[in-house]
Amino acid sequence: MKLIERVDYLNRLIRLKGTPDIKIITGLRRSGKSELARSYIDWIKGNFTDDNIIYIDFYNLKYEKLKTYRALYDYIENHKIEGKNNILIIDEVQLCEKFELAINSLYNSRKYDIYITGSNAFLLSSDLSTLFTGRYIEVPVYPFDLSEYCRYYDLDVGTPGLLDKYIADGGLAGAYLYNDKEDQIAYIKDVYNTIIHRDLVEKHGIKEVALLDSLSEYLMDNIANLTSASKIVTTFKQGKAETNHITIGNYLKYLCSAFIFYKVKRYDIRGKKYLQTSDKYYLCDLCFRYALLGTRNMDYGRAYENAVAIELLRRGYGIYVGKIYQKEVDFVAMKQNEKLYIQVSDNISEQETLDRELSPLRAIKDSYPKILIANTGHEDYDIEGIKILDITRWLLNSHK
């Protein structure tokens, strides 16, 4: 398999080296967490030859006997070298029973620089504060972005149909090993089914598996549309599927906690407050929609909006759906003191479409940057101070 160095993630770990926090690498199953850990080990070996690396991969039978917290703790303590920087890296930590007891004890000893990865459904963001009594830093990992996809296949911005090809193929690098499209889809479905039917069902004891499947497919079919648990219940009941808003609300939370979907809340731009009614859900990688639903009800404008949402999250922004009067701004993106207002569109060659997309941005009266990202095929330009960016070029600039 061709390996692509994930520069941003690796640099993040490099910056965190030696900090006292527990570094927790999270993300979708098969998104590259284990490869990132191995790349980091290679970097340490190449730059700090005197460091003592204690590496445990619980998918390797070599470490089968360490799957209780006491055995894990004793093994690590026995492999510690006094006077050296002891770096502990554990892959698939959830396979060790009560692993958090060992990790917290090792953390409290202040003798280790600790990094762990785990299966998405068993090491959830919502669980971290409960599992770890000490300080931790979460390092979220996403599937390949467009620039990584291009590096893998030796493509560039001039490749015909590049954006739509990337959206259909997705960012799960394991699928790239298969030359036949049917085999790629089979791989993607296998990843999806493992997350839904094994991880989530097992962790949460879900009985209504068919309902969970229906909900996931509903969200895939409605990416970038405002929705709520109550609205979904009403839709399902119209289709003769009995459920309630509590069950749907729980299932929505499970799907998001496993990084299949990302929930985006609404934000009142004028009132500067968050709104509680209706949210949007974006799919972690559009390859799942293609694999499960094909091109049924395909809306490229919403697909591009989904791609922009995930890319903004990759770049470290918190994102919200903006409301300004009765208009909607696709994204209010915030990071520290930075704020961006972003609209996303497919084709803005028609003046009517362009005016419609610019209208919400024109209604905002503050001085923060306003951006329209569209499938223009052109270099960047601006209209009345609003930047018009080509979506392919914008996605390719992820490392700049």
Note down, in words, how this protein is organized.
It is a single chain. By secondary structure, this protein is of the alpha/beta class. It folds into two domains: 135 residues, P-loop containing nucleotide triphosphate hydrolases (Rossmann fold); 251 residues, no CATH class. Helices cover 42% and strands 22% of the residues. It contains 15 helices and 13 strands. The strands form two sheets. An eight-stranded mixed sheet has the order 7-6-8-9-10-11-13-12. A five-stranded parallel sheet has the order 2-3-4-1-5, with helices on both faces. α10 packs across α11. The chain is globular, with a radius of gyration of 22 Å. The two termini are 26 Å apart.
Main traits of this protein?
400 residues; alpha/beta; Rossmann fold; 15 helices; 13 strands; 42% helix; globular
